[in-house]
Amino acid sequence: MASTSAQLPSDSSSSSNVIRRWSHDVFLSFRGEDTRYNFTDHLYTHLLRSGITTFRDDRLTRGEEIQHELLKAIENSRCSVVVFSKNYAESRWCLEELAKIMECRQEFEQIVLPVFYHVNPSDVRTQTGSFGKAFTNHEINWKNKVQIWRDALTEAGNISGWHVNVNEGTRYESEYMRAIATDIFKRLNYKCLFVGKNLVGMDSYLRELISKLKIQSTDHDVRIVGIWGVGGIGKTTIAKAIYNQIGHEFDCVSFLENVKEIHKVKGGLHDLQKQLLHDITGENLYISNISQGAQVIKNTLQSRKALIVFDDIDGDLELLECLVGEHHWFGRGSRVLITTRDRNLLHNVNDVFEIEGLNHKDALKLFSLYTFQQSLPEEDYKILSNDVIHYCQGLPLALKVLGSLLRGKGTSEWESELHKLKNIPNAKIQDVFKISYDELDRTQQAIFLDIACFFKGEDRDFVSKILDCCKMFAESGIGILEAKCLITVSNNKIYMHDLIQEMGWEIIRQQHPKDPNKWSRLWNPDDIYRAFISEKGMKNVETISLELSRSKEVFANMKKVFAKMRKVFAKMKKLRLLRVYYSDDTMRKKYKISLPEGFEFPRELRYLHWEGLEALPLNFDPENLVAINLKCSNIKKLWKMKKHHEKLKFVDVSDSQQLIKMPKLSSMPNLESLNIEGCMSFCKLHSSIGEFPDMKFLKELLLEKTGIKELPSSIQYFTSLEVLNVSLCSKLQKLPDCFAKMRRLRRLYMRGTRVKELPSSIGYLESLESLNLWDCSRLEKFPEMVKMKCLRELHLSRTAIKELPSSIGYLESLEFLYLLSCSHLEKFPEMVKMKCLKELYLNGTAIKELPSSIGYLESLESLHLSRCSHFEKFPEMVKMKCLKGLYLDGTAIKELPSSIGYLESL
Predict the structure, then answer these.
(1) Enzyme catalytic residues
(2) What is the pLDDT of residue 860?
(3) CA 328, CA 305: separation in Å to the nearest integer?
């Protein structure tokens, strides 16, 4: 992920935390005429034999300026070896090199190793002897450089190095060379790890990880950071790269790879302890048992500044206690990295670095490097390459595997492979994901498969409540799946990587590869068709999700399926979840499905979602249902049975144009959400809802675009109601004055109704966050907002409102206020406490002026006064430090206040 060539990561411990790329391990600085063909040449050879890439000046490209190329080579080397010989100081080029080397030592903490070849280190330090004589000439010709050179020599002379003087007879030159090469190898390859080739997108990861590790912290604290992500996302690669980059800054380092796999082997934990101790001490310490090993590790680490990486940790308690330990095990300034797929293991760390997939650009580059050995795909393969990128969804492992698989193949072979992948996932990729699946218990595996085959993209709370009624302990299970990166939850929706979903599908298929009628879950229309037509098996089926929008042919085939439904459904005693739906709105409204006579839904059914249904069975009894969704049906009424349905929590009959009657809501005492939106024939809410006092759990009542004319006063008993939507109810003219008790109501939508006035009790909705009265063209007056302390959004655009209550200026939480095209509004009240207001829209109003208090709105970012033709004067803008947009086109304003020049954000 970092570089596309075999470059070692940088030491990067400068204050800027710049991630450097090295072209060489060692830069050799020497006086050519003194040592080029003897000592330096032999040393160069020893270094190369040790695998140390070394730069010396005879490698310069001809025609290039020597000084520039030398300085560039110094900057791009991890270490500089300076061979001080008798005539070294006579060369100004050598002295320039040395000055640059010492500069890099300061700026990048480059390693500098001096070799004093037949010279006294004190002569280098103090510029005496041959070095003093050389400076006699430099003082005359290079006065402006002399002090820089002297400082560099003094600093270099004070660094511990090698004093090579074979005349003393203590050692042969060859022994010095071997010792120097060995020392350099140890310094540069302190257990440096091979990271791999074709690494793309690493720099941003390393910058963020370095930030979380706080390498430059001066408080010498111990920091433990977790690297968390799905299998194949690059956790180990990133850990290796950061280990190589910063390892030289620690007294001791250890990288324990594949901890989980080693731990599974008998004696694995004991072996891991011994490896860690060996890495730290360099010795093979004897430990008789795991408990002793834990104590020895603790005692050994407490006095050392260590960098330890525990790669791929699982949740075994003994492993965590006896190997990973706690903060107080480690010496001051130590850093510990833990890579894992399980977020729950990282509760005692200082920070967590979550790795996400590559973006499209980086993904395409990585794939192309493996497929075409270049950064972009070949012209004939561009479209196909993008298909692969879409399939892999940024997962590096998948990009590498498929890139290698497709390398050298023609376009027709690519098309064949991609078609195959849609039906048979790549085994190498799937095996990586399945490790996490295999760690789940039976119930967690069932939840995973339900999400993969049925619930992907659904609301987490909704899924939890349905699965809880299936005795699956969903809240805990979903948390485990999220912690193990098998799902993600965003905006409370459950998502799953497509490749992980395919792994779930493959697990189901492997139950009986050629017999979908024996599978536990069905989701593919072709497989469902085969299963139903065979009329065999079906006893194991727990979930069916049938999407009918793929083609008219699919729908035509499904008519054959529906004809056999009575017999087949009678076999499905285990069916818990059923969904028949359209992703295409046109088909949803056009096609209707009739159930065969005598049809019955299985009693174990917990969730029924069937769009476009003509009618429910005559004997339909939702005894065990938790949720029922009958969008776009032709149903006139739900069921006739007069009994309580205590398990039912969610009812959605939206866009059922013929619906005229609902069962009494009191028959569904645990109902949480009722959606009747778009049911134009439904107009008598008060006659169908029953006794309201029993409704303790209803949170959502959606009546948009229905035919209702009024809301009953008994709605006040919905004390748990959070969302009430009566928008586009064009016959609704009046609201009951009963909102005072609805203390949990957060969103009230009344857009496009014919309401003339609002009841005063609306001003007491203390939890209300959003109120939408857009297009209520008959609304002339707004009541006082007595307790609307939580209101964030207020939409009053295109109303007939003439004035606003003074209390609006005290809405401390209000962020967005819309009054567009309120042509009768002439005055805006003082904005006393509107400290959170960010956007104010007054376009097309009759306002002539704004109160002076508007100039004190510190949070205001956008102010719209376009088409306010009577607006003539703008007040002083005293504290509008956040204002970014001011729109005054179409106003009568003649001049702006001088304070506008101080608006820094505008």
Answers:
(1) 97
(2) 94
(3) 12
pLDDT in the model for residue 557: 64
d(CA 650, CA 626): 7
Rounded CA gap, 403 and 426, in Å?
12
Length of the chain: 906
Give counts: helices (H), strands (E), the chain: 27, 28
Of 550, 440, 542, 456, give the one whose Cα is nearest residue 495: 456
Distance of CA 838 to the CA centre of its chain: 28
Distances (CA, A) of 708 to 24, 461, 524, 686, 747: 78, 30, 40, 9, 19
Burial of 707 (0-12, 13-18, 19+ CB in 10 A): middle
The β-bridge partners of 637 are 661
Find out whether 162 and 179 touch, Cβ atoms under 8 Å: yes
| Tokens encoding 39 | 């000592």
Q: What is the pLDDT of residues 239-262, one digit of tens each?
A: 999 998 888 778 788 999 999 889
Rounded to whole angstroms, the Cα distance separating 387 from 421 reads 11
CB atoms within 10 A of CB 722: 19
Contact partners, residue 143, CB within 8 Å, separation at least 6: none
Give the SS3 label for residue 179.
Answer: helix
Which whole-number Å values give the CA distances from 11 to 51, 224, 262, 493, in the listed order?
19, 20, 30, 42
* Residues 364 and 377 sit within 8 Å (Cβ to Cβ): yes
**What pLDDT does residue 49 have?**
78
Spatial contact of 796 and 822, defined as CB atoms under 8 Å apart:
yes
In the numeric block, the tokens 């207020």 are attached to 794
- Model pLDDT, residue 60: 46
Neighbour count for residue 621 (Cβ, 10 Å): 16
139: which residues sit within 8 A by CB, 6+ positions away? Answer: 146
The SS3 assignment for 794 reads strand
Cβ count within 10 A of residue 852: 12
Q: Write down the pLDDT at residue 566.
A: 82
The C-alpha atoms of residue 255 and residue 243 are separated, in whole angstroms, by 8
State how far the alpha carbon of 776 is from the alpha carbons of 474, 785, 821, 825, in Å: 43, 19, 12, 14
Tokens linked to 360? 């499209």
Contact 882, 859 (CB under 8 A): yes
Q: Are 617 and 601 in contact (CB under 8 A)?
A: yes
Spatial separation of the C-alpha atoms in residues 72 and 27, rounded to whole Å: 11
Q: Contact 192/247 with Cβ under 8 angstroms?
A: yes
CB atoms within 10 A of CB 135: 19
Half-sphere exposure of 766 (CA within 13 A, CB side): 5
Pairing outcome for strands 488-490 and 493-495: antiparallel
* Rg of the chain, C-alpha, whole Å: 37
Q: CA of 793: how far to CAs of 232, 796, 808, 821, 841, in Å?
A: 43, 10, 12, 17, 12
From CA 610, how far away is CA 371, in angstroms rounded? 45
Q: What angle do CA 693, 699, 705 make, to 5 degrees?
A: 100
Please, which residues have CB within 8 angstroms of residue 63's CB and are 6 or more apart in sequence?
Answer: none
Tokens at 644, concatenated: 């309580």
Q: Determine the Cα–Cα distance for residues 138 and 89; give it in Å rounded to an integer.
A: 9
Q: Which residues are CB-neighbours of 334 under 8 A, at least 6 positions away?
A: 222, 223, 250, 301, 304, 305, 306, 307, 308
Cα–Cα dist 73/684, whole Å: 84
Residue reference for tokens 């769009």: 611
Q: pLDDT below 50 — which residues of the chain?
A: 1-19, 59-65, 687-688, 690
- For every residue of 195-262, DSSP letters joined together read --SS--SHHHHHHHHHHHHTTT-SS---EEEEEE--TTSSHHHHHHHHHHHHGGGSSEEEEE-SHHHH
Strand partners, 340: 228
Burial of residue 598 (number of CB atoms within 10 Å: 0-12, 13-18, 19+): exposed
The pLDDT value recorded for residue 840 is 96
Q: Rounded distance, CA 644 to CA 624, Å?
A: 11
